[in-house]
Each structure stands twice: as C-alpha cells, then as structure tokens.
Amino acid sequence: MIDIALVLELAALGLCGGFLAGLLGIGGGMILVPFITYMLSHRGVSPDLAVKMAIATSMATIIFTSVSSVRAHHKKGAVRWDLVKGLAPGIVLGSMIGSLGIFALIKGSSLALLFAAFVGFSATQMFLDKKPAAARQMPGLAGQVGAGGVIGLISGLVGAGGGFISVPFMTWCNVAIHNAVATSAALGFPIALANVSGYILASVGMSDLPPYSFGYLWLPALGVIASCSVLMAPVGASAAHKLPVKKLKRVFASVLYALAFYMLYKGLSH
Predict the structure, then answer these.
(1) Total domains present in the chain
(2) How far apart are CA 74 and CA 84, in angstroms?
(3) Lowest pLDDT segment from 103-112, 125-134, 247-256
(4) Can you give the chain as a three-state secondary structure string?
(5) Are 241 and 78 in contact (CB under 8 A)?
(6) What pLDDT does residue 81 have?
(7) Which of the pair, 168 or 61, is modelled with greater confidence?
(8) 8 A C-beta contact, residue 116 and residue 267
(9) Are strands 213-214 and 217-218 parallel, antiparallel or unpaired?
(10) Contact between 197 and 96 (Cβ < 8 Å)
(11) Residue 105: CB atoms within 10 Å
(12) Which domain holds residue 50?
C-alpha cells in the first residue's frame, strides 16, 4: 500500500509544479527533480539511483503538463509554431542521445552537479535581464535543428522540459518573453516523449529498484503529480499573460536559484 502522506506530498508537488510549468514554460521538471530526489532518498533509495529516477520521472510528467499548458498558451495565440517545427527535429535526436546513451553511463552525482550548473546559469541570465542586440534573430533551419539538439540533449540529462535553455535562447534572439515561454511549453512534449522512451530502453533489466517502479520511472509520483499538474498548468499559463515581463523573469530566476543550490548540495554530498 502507498501511504496517504506520500500521496498528499506528491499532490502538493504536482499542483505547484503544474502552476509553475504554465507560468514559466519550464515543464515543471526543474521544480520536481529536487523534491522527488529528496522523497526517494528519504525512502532508502541510494543517492545515485534516486537522482536518476527523479530525473526520469520528472521528465515523464512533462508529457502530460506540456499538453495542458500549451493548449492554454495556444488559445492566446502566443505559441510560435514556426519555431517549434524548426527546433523539434534536433530536440528528438539530442534527447535520444542523452537519455539512451549518456544518462545510463554517467553517475547520479555528476547529473546533480550538471543540473545545478545549468539551472544556475539560466537563472543568472534571466535575473540580469540582458537586452539582446536589436538586429539579432533566430537562426535559420540548420541553426534551429542544431540548437534543438543541444536543448534536447541537456534536457534529457537533467530531467527538465528545456525551458531553462530554450526560453533564454529565444529571448536572446529577440523573441518576446511571452512567446518564448509559450513556445517552450510546446517544445516540452517532443522533449519528454523522446527522453522517456530513451530512459525506458536504458533501464531494461535493472534490479534493486524500489516498489512500483518501471525502470527509472517511479509510478506513484508519475501518476499523482501528472494528475494534479494538468489541473494547474492552464492556471499558470493564464497568469503568465497578466504579469509584466521583468517580474516574470525575476520569478523565473528566483525559483531556479533555490533549486540549483539544493542539487549542488546533493551532487557534492555523495
């Protein structure tokens, strides 16, 4: 039996993660990974496996939250579908390389440090609110496929929907912040689908997994978090269109800093 306290913890995490996914276009992954890591560690799962399972489970929830979030953004006409088409092929390729190959070979502590480094960097870029050169635009198709490959690869290694790279990248290329957040939410679906497929294939035949696991996926967390986050993602997406740009960036940065410090601690402590 799964205890009620765990269900309530996961539900609260799902509600918060879903809201922030819609608000910030980050797929909720960067919110979920530190908390799921803590929950698994608390239940006796080895630190190395806990980080990997948290990353994989977090990514799986993004399949559901991205659909809910992007519908709300699409209704407001904020999604740049031309950019989704340009970035998605590279994202799928990069995701498969990361989740099927590198993820299985690298240590959980290294993944935690990688998570902390990229999240901290993204937070700094957002917090400084650097203005891009006025003439800078998104690259052509080849450049977008290449950028998508990098986004997919790194997302697969840290269990996030790619918003922590794609949102700063698009705003750097003079895409408006609200369009960047909405487009990032749409990119979360191919990122999550490709990465989860890779995680499942990479974890075939694994032993020493906790109860209710399917390879690297922790099913209780996936079920409860996905159910709750889908309810809140449209609420977050609606709030994103009411907040001023600078405040949205500062909210984004503040959340990311806190999570980066936690994962840095996890990476250095084992």
Answers:
(1) 1
(2) 12
(3) 125-134
(4) CCCHHHHHHHHHHHHHHHHHHHHHCCCCHHHHHHHHHHHHHHCCCCHHHHHHHHHHHHHHHHHHHHHHHHHHHHHCCCCCHHHHHHHHHHHHHHHHHHHHHHHHHCCHHHHHHHHHHHHHHHHHHHHHCCCCCCCCCCCCHHHHHHHHHHHHHHHHHHCCCCHHHHHHHHHHCCCCHHHHHHHHHHHHHHHHHHHHHHHHHHCCCCCCCCCCEECCEEHHHHHHHHHHHHHHHHHHHHHHCCCCHHHHHHHHHHHHHHHHHHHHHHHHCC
(5) yes
(6) 93
(7) 61
(8) yes
(9) antiparallel
(10) yes
(11) 8
(12) 4-268
Strand partners, 214: 217
Residue-level pLDDT at 131: 60
Residue labelled with tokens 């035949």: 205
**Residue 23 has which token pair?**
């608000």
At 65, the amino acid letter reads T
